[in-house]
């Protein structure tokens, strides 16, 4: 059972999400919050697995709350769910630890699947956002120092990471580098471990900020 905290300043949206998710036997709504400050307090009290986080709210917005929750409660995943396809919000939410960023017009079945995915540690982004971020159409924050493990990447791993950032599949990478697909998978496993990221999407975003 995945425990969910709903965060939105509009009661109509909260009621709609509750009605949508209540029939799902694998999900349980354990609480609600009307702004980011209350959300942090509720996470401390309720220890939800996943927080569905709105962005623009009074007192504390969802991006600031996401940063605090991800720092203080790393076991809780934040899935941003908003009406705003705002480039800066997307960039900040993901870089500060959000496990996903979806729009509120996401089909119900896709939302449920996304909740399950982020609970398992995967990153979920609305269609088109991954490519926009990789291509640099969504602005990055001022780049901090390279992440842990970056300098430990081998030349081959950096080569594969660069291809991942272009959107290439494992098979396409194998064909490009004239190596076995199993070898590509092994390299990707090493890359994710060295960079301490959940999946190839996060690895690709790092490759954009720190060109290989």
What topology does this entry show?
Layout: E1 2-7, H1 11-21, E2 27-33, H2 36-46, E3 50-53, H3 62-72, E4 77-82, H4 87-95, E5 100-103, H5 108-119, E6 124-125, H6 129-134, H7 155-165, H8 170-177, H9 181-195, H10 200-209
Parallel strand pairs: 1-2, 1-3, 3-4, 4-5, 5-6
Order of helices and strands: EHEHEHEHEHEHHHHH
Radius of gyration: 18 Å
The main sheet comes to: 6 strands, parallel
User: What's the quaternary structure here?
Assistant: single chain
Q: Under the CATH scheme, which class of the largest domain?
A: Alpha Beta
CATH T-level topology of the largest domain: Rossmann fold
* Overall structural domain count: 2
What is the count of helical runs?
10
Percentage of residues in helical conformation: 40-55%
Strand content is 5-15%
Strand order of the largest sheet: 2-1-3-4-5-6
| Total count of strands | 6
Organism: Lusitaniella coriacea LEGE 07157
Protein name: Response regulator transcription factor
GO molecular function, one term: DNA binding
Keywords: DNA-binding, Phosphoprotein
């Amino acid at each position: 059972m995945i425990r969910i905290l709903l965060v939105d300043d509009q009661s109509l949206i909260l009621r709609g999400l509750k009605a949508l998710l209540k029939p799902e036997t694998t999900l349980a709504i354990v609480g609600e919050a009307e702004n980011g400050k209350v959300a942090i307090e509720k996470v401390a009290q309720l220890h939800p697995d996943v927080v569905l986080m709105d962005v623009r709210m009074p007192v504390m917005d969802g991006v600031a709350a996401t940063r605090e929750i991800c720092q203080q409660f790393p076991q809780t995943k934040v899935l941003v769910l908003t009406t705003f396809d705002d480039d800066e919000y997307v960039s900040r939410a993901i870089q500060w630890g959000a496990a996903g960023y979806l729009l509120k017009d996401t089909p119900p079945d896709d939302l449920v699947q996304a909740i399950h995915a982020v609970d398992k540690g995967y990153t979920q982004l609305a269609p088109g956002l991954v490519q926009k971020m990789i291509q640099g159409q969504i602005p990055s924050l001022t780049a901090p120092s390279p992440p842990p493990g970056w300098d430990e990447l081998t030349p081959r791993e950096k080569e594969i990471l660069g291809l991942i950032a272009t959107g290439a599949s494992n098979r396409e990478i194998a064909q490009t580098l004239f190596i076995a697909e199993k070898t590509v998978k092994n390299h990707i496993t090493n890359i994710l471990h060295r960079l301490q990221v959940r999946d190839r999407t996060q690895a690709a975003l790092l490759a954009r900020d720190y060109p290989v």
